[in-house]
Amino acid sequence: MTDAPGLALLDDEPFVSLTTFRRSGEPVATTVWIVRDGDALYVTTGETTGKVRRLRRDPRVTMRPCTRMGRVAEDAPSVPAVAEVVTDPEVTGRVMSAFRTKYRTQFRLAMALERFRKKGGGRVLLRITSG
């Protein structure tokens, strides 16, 4: 592994609290699924979400392990990083396959429900690397 030890702390976590920052500097935490591909961690999200808009302006993020409901333990490590939006079809195919492998049925169900509930807008990946 070529990244800083911080990202490695999150490899096996099922859920991570990903914090992005508003223009004002106010942090916004979101619970996400995460997978590793090479030296980066990846998150998948809707292309029109607030976190994508915030990351296009400010790539800084912090991540902390959390529960499915977003609860973060007081002593959970905080890992600073940077994120970028990835839309490359080859990377997307490979990483989405990793999500299906790691999260199995729950990921497939979540994606199916999302397609059913939402109209328009696709998904993008957020590539997260050491800051």
Automatic annotation (TrEMBL):
**GO MF annotations in UniProt:** coenzyme F420 binding; oxidoreductase activity, acting on the CH-CH group of donors
Q: Which organism is it from?
A: Actinopolymorpha cephalotaxi
Does the record's keyword annotation contain Transmembrane? no
Domain Pyridoxamine 5'-phosphate oxidase N-terminal stretches: 8-128
Keyword Lipid biosynthesis in annotation? no
Q: What is the lineage of its organism?
A: Bacteria, Bacillati, Actinomycetota, Actinomycetes, Propionibacteriales
**Keyword set for this entry?**
Oxidoreductase
- Highest rank taxon of the organism: Bacteria
Quote a single Gene Ontology cellular component term.
Answer: cytosol
Q: Mind telling me what this protein is named? A: Pyridoxamine 5'-phosphate oxidase N-terminal domain-containing protein
